[in-house]
Amino acid sequence: MRALAPQIVRLLNLVACSTPSWHDKVRLLDSTPIPCAASRETVKRSAFAGQAAYGYCPSHSRYFWGFRLYLLCASDGMPICFELAPANAPEREVAAEMLQRIDLHGYTVLADKGFAGADFEALMRELHAIFLRPDRKNEPARFGGLGSIRQWIESTIDTLKGQLSLEHHGAHTMPGLHTRIAQRLLALAACLWHNWNTGNPGRHLTAYDH
DSSP character for 173? Predict the structure, then answer.
């Protein structure tokens, strides 16, 4: 199973391309923690040593050791592109590297306040994308809070963590981690593909999680 990550990613791309989600002109960008150890002793013995790092999760006000998963998806949650990086890697730099691998010409990309910055916005213009994010308190009003739209990507990540147990991946090696993350993204994509093809589009996983 640890050797199957490339094949799973190719299948994930194939599934995504075969749904109307692929042609959605909205792309949602966010990142989420992927913890890999819960104690200092585990950190010392882990095979992730030298690759994982400590990072901070603002939504839970806590530090964790591991990685962050960067996810770009369509508005219904269909995974379009993803990247795994150490938890302390600069968010905007990792996201920029990921976004330059895909076509964003004419797309609207929505992200959170963590992706604010002149360099990142300049990159979006170079990619010919429309970039939207919530306004910060110390800057002029431009886009507002975007709360209802931001909830789309947050609920997608909740699905990955809750019903698809993303944080409880159980991986102990980098190949294993890559495969287990790809498996969960493929499961999400397969459910969305199935719902499109049965005339019930949307992220309805309840019928498949028991």
Answer: S
| CB-count exposure of residue 141 (10 Å: 0-12, 13-18, 19+) | exposed
Predicted confidence (pLDDT) at residue 20 exceeds the cutoff of 90: yes
66 inside domain? yes
Average of per-residue pLDDT across 191-206: 87
Strands (E), the chain: 26-37, 53-57, 62-74, 79-86, 108-110, 130-132
| Whether residue 209 has pLDDT greater than 60 | no
What is the distance between the alpha carbons of residues 199 and 184, in angstroms, rounded to a whole number?
A: 23
Residue 209 maps to a domain: no
pLDDT at 172 over 50: yes
What's the number of domains the chain is made of?
Answer: 1
Nearest-Å Rg of the Cα atoms of the chain is 17
- Residue 90 is assigned to a structural domain of this protein: yes
Ordered alpha helix ranges (H), 111-173: 118-126, 147-161
Q: Provide the CATH number for the domain around residue 162.
A: 3.30.420.10
pTM above 0.85, yes or no: yes
Amino acid letter at 171?
A
Give the domain range for residue 82. Answer: 5-204
In-domain check, residue 210: no
**What residues form DSSP beta bridges with 110?**
28, 132
SS3 69: strand
Count the alpha carbons within 13 Å of 70 in the hemisphere toward its beta carbon: 22
